[in-house]
Structures are given as C-alpha cells and as structure tokens.
Amino acid sequence: MDRPRIGPFGDSALLLTFGDGIDEAVSRRVRQAARVLRRLRDDHVGIGAPVAAYASILLPFDPLATSAEAAARLALEALATAAAEDPAIAAAAIEVPTRYGGEDGPDLLEVAEAHGLTVPQAIECHAGAEYVVAFLGFMPGFPYMIGGPAALDHPRRPTPRTRVAAGSVAIAGTQGTVYPFASPGGWNLIGRTDLRPWDAQRDPPARLAPGSRVRFVPVPDR
C-alpha cells in the first residue's frame, strides 16, 4: 500500500493523509488502511481505534503507554505489508427501496429544476447511480456515500432543518446518505426508505458499512 503522509494531531493522535478531496480511489485506500489499523489496536498496547474520513484517518494513541514515533512506525509498517484488497467492494450492491418526492422527498422538485430536469428524470438519474459507502460519521450508521451523478451535484441547503425524519434519502454535492435516525440535517431530501441503516441489535449493526455498494430503487408511495 502506498505510504500516506503522517503527522501529529494534538498530543495523543496521528493524522494519516492519503489524498485530497472526495475520490473513490483515495477512499478505497482509506478503507483498506482503516481495516489494517484496527488490528493494531488489538495487537499493541496504547493504540486506539482509527477514525476514517474521505481521505484521511485519525489514529489515537495513549501517550502514557507509547510515543507518537512508535505509533507512527507501527502504522507505517503495518500499511507497508498490507494486501491491497477491499472485499466489501466486491459484494453485491445493496438495494435501498426509495419513495421519491412528495412528503418523503420535499427537496426533489427544487433539485430537479435547478439542474434542468423533470422529477422523473431526476429520479432516474439518482436511481441509475451506484454509490459506495466511504465511511460512517455524524451519528451511528450515517453513511457518507460517494459516486453520485454529476447531473445532481447540488449543494447542501443554506439553512439546515431542525428535524429530518429517519430513513430520509438525501444528497449533498455528489454525496449521498440515508439518515439512520431523526436528527437535524442540511442535506437535500429527495426520498425516504424503510431500510434501517443502523440497528444496535443486529450483528454487525451497520447495514450500509464502509465499502458497501448501494443502489436506490424507486418504489410506489404508500
């Protein structure tokens, strides 16, 4: 695996940077590296659980148990010998049944019109894309997905909503997500699904995990 840039992040963490911006090739490297670094936590005292983002990983360590230099050496040695594979990316795509527009997707019309599309065209465009989950963040099970169509590259809303319903299907730029729980949110709501991205009683709890391929399938309103 290619060597990342690595440096201190405060006095008890390292930041490993694999690239810049939102890019599937970089995201794949981050997912591979995160799996490798999770094993360090199990094998070495003082190494914490890695926290992945689009192009970087935060690796916490206990400064009372190890040093930044030792943690960096362990991380780089582990990454240098890691196999370049991403099993989750080879799995079948997860289909997310989605009710588009109306009360379930109040921003769909605005998004479609902003890009010169009819609502059916916008639905076809979104449902025709294959997303990949880059990482989870914001709340348990909230998937940050990349791979959205350029034709629906729409910015976040200028003013976030105070409440977004659980199961809301949303886009921001070329990113996509499904809100696992009701929460505030600033993404554009284009539909809703009954699929549960996160269930603490399920093993594993995340239905849409890093590396998962995701396709949205239009279904009729109730």
Key descriptive features of the protein:
alpha+beta; single chain; 222 residues; Cyclophilin; 4-stranded antiparallel β-sheet; 24% helix; 5 helices; 2 domains; Gyrase A, domain 2
Written account of the structure:
The N and C termini lie far apart (48 Å). The chain folds into two domains: 5-85, Gyrase A, domain 2; 89-218, Cyclophilin-like (Cyclophilin), CATH 2.40.100. α1 crosses α2 and α4 crosses α5 (119-127). The mean pLDDT is 94. It is elongated and about 55 Å long. It has helices at residues 24-43, 68-80, 87-90, 108-114, 119-127; strands spanning 5-8, 13-17, 51-52, 56-60, 94-100, 131-136, 143-146, 161-164, 168-172, 175-178, 183-185, 188-192, 213-218. Strands 7-6-13-5-12-9-10 form a seven-stranded mixed sheet. The chain has a four-stranded antiparallel sheet with strand order 1-2-4-3, with helices on one face. A two-stranded antiparallel ribbon has the order 8-11. A hairpin with a 4-residue loop joins β1 and β2 (13-17). With 222 residues, it is an alpha+beta fold.
